[in-house]
Amino acid sequence: MxxxxxIRSGGQILVDAxxxxxxxxxxxxxxxxxxxxxxxxxxxxxxxxIVTRHExxxxxxxxxxxxxxxxxxxCFVTRGPGATHAANGVHTAREDSTPMILFIGQIDSAFRGRxxxxxxxxxxxxxxxxxxxxxxxxxxxxxxxxxxxxxVAxxxxxxPVVIGLPENLLSGAGVAVxxxxxxxxxxxxxxxxxxxxxxxxxAARRPLVIAGGTGWNGEATAALARFVTDNxxxxxxxxxxxxxxxxxxxxxIGQLGLGISPRLAERVRDADLLxxxxxxxxxxxxxxxxxxxxxxPRQTLIHIHAxxxxxxxxxxxxxxxxxxxxxxxxALAALPPVANPTWADWTRAARADYIAHxxxxxxxxxxxxxxxxxxxxxxxxxLPDDAILANGAGNYTVWVHRFFRYRRPATELAPTNGAxxxxxxxxxxxxxxxxxxxxxxxxxxxxFHDVPAGTGHGxxxxxxxxxxxxxxxxxxxxxxxxxxxxxRPGQRHPIAQPGFxxxxxxxxxxxxxxxxxxxxxxxxxxxxxxxxxxxDRTARRPAPDHPSSPARLSGAFRRRTPPLPxxxxxxxxxxxxxxxxxxxxxxx
Length: 588
Fold this sequence. Notes:
This protein has 588 residues and is α/β, with parallel strands linked by helices. Helices cover 34% and strands 13% of the residues.
């Protein structure tokens, strides 16, 4: 049978392959190294292109897209500096186990090895942080490489894939056979492992479940909730995975990460059985490998993870189980519950400790500034259950982890690798994917350095800037944030938020708390109605009646400056009267 495949450019073949794998959005900074791809995207209306100002923002948006959709987020950047800027997002996707594919424009293949303009060996550069780093060398292999990239990004422990695109390959033309998406294999727990797991659980007196990792969906989280409820088990979330379990449920006992409750840390050490599902029990979750010691934990450890290479790498578990989180959760929910469990008091005490830790302390009148504990409590009471919160990195995130209660899966966007600049790009990506949902970005000063370009889609993201003083204040009062009791968080910036306190008498306004609440709640209502509002970004600015206010200064300028006379046209100067430029003597 003759081959009837059409002749297409390399850029067209690549974009057709992405469309065949269900890609509907890509994030990029345009570059001349992959112009044929941009031309093909322009002719492909089913794929939306989101342009950012910085490659780091594009990579972070692709990571957020992968977290929300469970499918690889797609990012395009140009060669050299564009690739190095995007490396931060690749590292985030690696540590967060997020499926992502980064395409990088590359130099012409004929110039390889000469240190040509912006030449980098991307296999070597990304080999240590990506699941797979490669470069396409033949046009007809583009569909094959793309299909393999999706399989690698989604299989086992999800992660990033990096693909170099030589310029001559994209601009060339030829015939390539499209490759359909391949089904992803998912490991499931064996029956013998489930039997041993139930025996270990029945023999425990102080069990504790730790949920984390990626690959969860609504069905898997619901199955996990049934298993925990049927066996009356306490559950803690690993670092920045609080949205895997309803924090209002009586079995939820807190998060293991920045700002961990000292009582919860003690409870993890005292547990006689840890059932860990999906989490690697990395540095942040284990408080520097002190809560769960490596390589021999003091607790009986049942470790369920999708990557067989992760099992036994850091911890020697009593029962390692190679299984993806979704099949594992469904298998656990199908197990017969333990009859008459002996840990009911243990679970109730752990929940009581969490409630005490997550309740904002009473305001101290001696302290001034924004009370971020009250801000988080107000957001917790006001935001809808499906609201998405995005944050970057810094000690300011402790208030989010401690005082906000997540209700549903895929509502927490936060980098486990501690990358600044993540929150705002992630929030914008979330709003583009879910325009009907409320999206809030909690950010510090360092989180605005990768501000994306305007998307042109009219979606508003609510932002609150905690400011660098919050970082300094928290570090000064709580030097060991991973295990410290944050007694009374506070800030000093005049942000319009609940609990608003002015730092200087000259900035005080009447009824400031009610005004702040009306402003933030009005912004949230405006976002739901599709209208812009003054709460789109809470900037640190003085009140209008303060002497340093731009409005007051401009008004004073207008009062003190006489109006300028009407401009009269002036005749052109005569060439004879023009001042002559001083002649320059020649250099000796």
